[in-house]
Design a protein that fits this description.
This is DUF4062 domain-containing protein. It holds the Pfam family DUF4062. It comes from Acinetobacter apis. With about 325 residues, this protein is α/β, with parallel strands linked by helices. It folds into two domains: about 150 residues, 3-Layer(aba) Sandwich (Rossmann fold), CATH 3.40.50; about 140 residues, no CATH class. The protein has eleven helices and eleven strands. The strands form three sheets. It has a five-stranded parallel sheet, sandwiched between helices. Helix 1 links the parallel strand 1 and strand 2. Helix 1 packs across helix 6 and helix 4 crosses helix 5. The termini are far apart.
Length: about 325
């Protein structure tokens, strides 16, 4: 086990959730996380909360029977923090109280969609992947212990290590790991072994999987469906290459692919089902996103070149890829 510690921002409705907040903090600290959050909020603390969210590795929202204090925008500070975390593309985990009283609140959503707490609980349960119900304080502690370690697997973060020279050492280690992988790949080819991610050619076809919310018969209800788009790797390099001509943060992979999928799916949504009247929230599947990053790095089309002030990876196209893109552009002209 490494010495990294991850920073977790906890968002709750306010002081009325002090017992749950205390259990969550204590559990995370014993697991090796840095946990913080704000229980007393006002307009003056909003900037401080956003700065903490910027610096955190994971965002945890804890929802029960209260919507919390309202801001000047008529949204609770808890929901504003959630919206900001999603905008900053932070991995979001939700622990949602499913006691009888809370189930009654969820039932209100079907009767009146104007009540803010039922709407927010419905939004969390349908828009997030990592949503975990709990039934009491003891169950909350066990759910946190069981689920939080999974976040480092599905949403790897840099974390924090106590060392003055961590950055330089980490970059050197990454370079050595890259050289080792190249050597192991050559050895595998010589011995006939096939690695988990075999090298691909620019002309190979890739099934780009994504999710889309589909609306039918002009209803407010939607169905989340999984789709795929067959695309050659050369086209993926063209799409992403334009985004990474200049050094960009790793989050740009997802943003660029989602923008491409949105433009493509918007014109082809009727192909899924003739009854579909609208679509929204097109998102690349995390497995496809991870595979694309691996192949871009493994084939040295787009590679990490360093880190920004937040210690996040910065990626850029290689000179060979730039030459390829220029050649393709000249060929089209």
């Amino acid at each position: 086990m490494d010495d990294r510690k991850f920073q977790v921002f906890i968002s709750t409705s306010g002081p009325e959730m002090a017992p749950e907040y205390s259990i969550l903090c204590q559990t995370l600290v014993t697991m090796g996380y840095f946990a913080w959050g704000l229980q007393q909020r006002c307009e003056d603390t909003e900037h401080f909360a956003r700065r903490q969210i910027d610096e955190c590795d994971y965002f945890v929202v804890l929802i029960s029977q209260s919507y919390g204090d309202l801001s000047s925008s008529h949204l609770s500070y808890m929901q504003l923090e959630y919206i900001y975390a999603m905008a900053r593309q932070k991995p979001v985990v939700a622990f949602i109280d499913m006691s009888d009283a809370c189930l009654a609140i969820d039932a209100q959503y079907k009767r009146d969609e104007r009540q803010p707490l039922p709407v927010f609980r419905h939004l969390i349960q349908h828009d997030l992947t990592c949503v975990f119900p709990y039934y009491g304080l003891d169950d909350l502690e066990s759910k946190v212990r069981a689920r939080m370690p999974e976040m480092d697997i599905y949403y790897p973060a840099q974390g924090w290590v106590r060392s003055a020279n961590t950055r330089a050492l980490h970059d050197e280690i990454q370079q050595l790991k890259h050289r080792i992988k190249q050597f192991e790949r050559r050895q595998a080819l010589q011995t006939g072994l096939v690695s988990q991610f075999t090298s691909v050619q620019l002309t190979d076809i890739f099934d780009l999987e994504y999710h889309v919310n589909a609306y039918k018969n002009e209803s407010d209800r939607y169905q989340k469906i999984k789709c795929s788009k067959r695309i050659v790797w050369l086209d993926l390099v063209k799409i992403l290459g334009q985004c990474f001509i200049q050094p960009q943060a790793e989050e740009q992979f997802e943003q660029c692919l989602n923008y491409y999928l949105t433009q493509m799916v918007w014109n082809e949504h009727y192909l899924f089902d003739a009854k579909i009247t609208g679509i929204s929230d097109i998102e690349v599947h995390v497995k496809s996103l991870y595979t694309i990053k691996i192949q871009m790095k493994q084939n040295e089309w787009i590679i990490p070149i360093g880190r920004d002030h937040r210690y996040k990876l910065i990626w850029q196209v290689t000179s060979e890829t730039q030459a390829l893109l220029k050649k393709e552009q000249e060929a089209r002209q």
